[in-house]
Amino acid sequence: MGGDSTSKPAPVLTENQKRIKAVISNITRTIELLNSTDFEDAKDNLPSAFKEIAKPLKLAKVAFNKYKDNPTVSESEKDATAVEKFKKSITILSTRTKRLHTICGEVIPADDDDKPPLDRYKTAVKNPDERVEVLVKFVLQTGLKEIAKEPYITAAERKELKEALKKVEEIEPSLPNSNAAAGQHIYNNDGDGTINVNHGNGNMNINPGSGQIFDGGEFQNLYFGVQPPAPRQ
Predict the structure, then answer these.
(1) 233, exposed or middle or buried, with CB in 10 Å at 0-12, 13-18, 19+?
(2) Measured in whole angstroms, how far is the alpha carbon of residue 193 from the centre of its chain?
(3) Distance in angstroms (rounded) separating the CA atoms of residues 41 and 35
(4) Which of 41, 84, 161, 182 is the most exposed place for a label (fewest CB within 10 A)?
């Protein structure tokens, strides 16, 4: 008979480790996309930020994997309040990394669409917080605050992440603020209910009463009440 062929059971992940696993999956798919042949053909027509985000994402992925695979994480999850706070942060992180992957995918022209990658990027980005460099910055900031710390990673690895964050913060904006907002919207609440407005992964704008929400861009000639008559010619 040969040696014992029984494989070791897969480690049981905590709920937060499962959430990190989803984040890692989003990051992995984004890195694969950035390294794909299709993206190689598109990147020359895209802002330089697209060429600078793969490396910091790889560093974040390494740190997140170490957290996911660390057996001592369960000890840190005995505080229910801390666990709930962590859950909220990682849920947002998961949403942002998923959005990053989607945006990177949308800049690649389809076979039946000759729209330039830069134009596709401008259309995909719904608000300034969705610019790729801003999303990657959020990944690193959240990682350093919630995940990438001892004992899950070494002091040297944490230092490398901090340096990567500084470089990301120095990336030239891939779109100016004016181009990063897809549109201007006015929502009028004529009743006494609540209007919840969210065009993507940015702020949730809540109107709990009568009145209007002005969302995105600049507005002129705002009248609260009766609009004054037009000036005489």
Answers:
(1) exposed
(2) 31
(3) 11
(4) 84
